[in-house]
Amino acid sequence: MAAGMRFTVMLQLMQAVYTLALDSNFLPLLQSHSLLVKDTDRCPGCERTQQGEFSNLLETESNIPNKPRLRHVREAEMLFVLELAVSENGNGPFPQRVGLVAQLEPGSTATLVLEGPGMNEDPFSFNSASGEVFVHKRLDREEKDKYRFTMKLLNSSGFTLKEVAVIVNVIDQNDHRPQFLGQPYVARIPEHSEAGTKVLQFSAQDEDDPNTGNGELRYSLLVPSPNDTWPVTFEIDPNTGELNSTTDPARLDRESLPMLEYSVVVKVSDNAGSDAALINTATATIIIEDINDHSPAFLETSVSLAVEEGTYGHILNLTVFDDDAPGSPNWLAVFNITSGDPYSHFNISTDPDTNIGILEVIEALDYETMANYVLIVSVTNEVPLVDRTTVGPNATLTIKLQVKDRNEPPVFSDPVLVMEEPENMPTGTTIIKLNASDPDTHNQGFRYQIGSDPAGWLKVNSNTGEVTTTTKLDRESSYIQGDHNYTATFLAIDNGSPSATSTATLLIYLEDENDNAPMLSPTIGWACHGKINSTVALLTATDIDLPPHAGPFSFSLGPLATSVHSKSGHAFRLNHNKRLQSAWHIAPLNSMTLSLINTVWGTMNISSLLQTLRKVALF
């Protein structure tokens, strides 16, 4: 190693580590002699000597990456301390000396400067003459655990001769209690769980240094203690905080335990649980959770009842008992009809509050189809039973149900009948034959009867059901509804006690015939004296029949048309009086309307003329 080359040596003294920056001129001394180090701050008046071979501890600056070689300085025989330590929470008085980081030979013209965040009494200061560092206030390691400064050696011209990093470490004190995380703690453990089953994970943290005993945590149980008489017991891993059950699975039976909730108090200690440790506690609620280890059972295995045919809705309550937790899926019953309901007439639902099964008829029962039922009903839970549970003999119920007969009304084969017939058909025409039957199997008869016949056009044979007309059916009648339908109803009434009745509706669509002449309006018009070639009236033709038995119309003057002179009162036939014939003519405007025009002097009554016109049916 060349003379003047810088190197570093790591020393341990009084449980503190120092890094020394020395000149290579000291190398022979270090390799062949002991190193005498004094620390009057930590141990006033005492000396410690570090013995040993130092050759393997030497590290030349030429081997340090990214670190420039420094010029050899004549005043190089000095000591740099690259790391200092100061305890947090110091009580002063302040400023308080932290330690010596560098020292110049007497008479040296060089200057020491220590720079970086935290200097200028915030919280540190540096005495450049003595090379000492001071702290000016109490420190908190949890706020800042180390301070980094730069030590510069300046010549008399202010030129930097050497520059090294100096670190002041804040030494941790045990000034924070560990804190539990994730509170409140609530856990559930299924009944009959095996011993060793994990119940809960406790977790805590400590703001003190985790690399020292101050942050080393230990967990323990306060309640229950090993001497407690609880039937349910637990243990906690002191290092991980995992809480496990230690209870015999046979004793961990929810239905036999005196209580189902247990409060476990856990203590966490720092400083590895020593007597000087700071502690904290947390309480966890442990709930014993139900499993489906009891099968539901009916209170009885057989029941009988009678129900009248035609009944709908609720007919029977099915009561079961189950020792599992009420309201839970392990307790709620599920009912199934496994046999005896070939036509799916029945359904069973569960009342969630009482766990009672409600048997209902959802399709009306018919005595004539099936008079007796034997229903086999099974009961389970919403969730399956656990493997070790067996189903008891009361898990099925036999229901013997008798259907009671009642008088049912006759049934029309077609309750709504639609037919199409021409109007004006001859009186006494048979238009349809009603067809009904009585579903009752015993000897019982019935008769037909008119329910409603607004126009009185129909009659029905009470035995055969034949429906005939009593008069001609007129499509233009006011009894005909908007779609040209005539509606009548018929009854089928049996002779039971009391009697039962059913109804059929007959809709008759009447086909139109040309049985109504067209009509002209208005029927009176006047041609005043002095108005020649004037329009006496606009005449409009209408016909209550339907096309093609109505418009379009054609118009002409009839042979019997007459006119009456308003002065003489004489009536003249147009075909006998040439003057009157030439006095009128018509001018059609369209297929429905025409103009009647007068071409002579005088006022004429045209009512007779119009009466003749409107009696002509034109096609």
Polypeptide structure, described:
With 619 residues, the chain is mainly beta. Helices cover 3% and strands 41% of the residues. The protein is built from 3 helices and 48 strands. The strands form 15 sheets. It has a 4-stranded antiparallel beta sheet, with no helix packed on it. A 4-stranded mixed beta sheet has the order 7-13-12-9, with no helix packed on it. It has a 4-stranded mixed beta sheet with strand order 15-22-21-18, with no helix packed on it. The longest helix is centred in the C-terminal third of the chain and has 8 residues, at 607-614. The N and C termini lie far apart (142 Å). Residues 1-77, 564-576 and 601-619 have low confidence and may be disordered.
Can you summarize the main beta sheet?
4 strands, antiparallel
Query: Uncertain regions: pLDDT < 50 for 5+ in a row?
Result: 1-77, 564-576, 601-619
Q: In whole angstroms, how far apart are the ends?
A: 142 Å
What does the radius of gyration come to?
60 Å
Physical arrangement of strands within the biggest beta sheet: 5-1-2-6
Q: Tell me the strand percentage band.
A: 35-45%
Helix count?
A: 3
| Class inferred from helices and paired strands | mainly beta
What's the pLDDT, averaged over the residues? 77
Q: Tell me, what's the shape? A: elongated
Question: Share of helix among residues?
Answer: under 10%
Query: In total, how many beta strands?
Result: 48
GO molecular function: beta-catenin binding; cadherin binding; calcium ion binding
Signal peptide: 1-21
Subcellular location: Cell membrane; Cytoplasm
Domain Cadherin: 124-180, 181-298, 295-412, 413-520
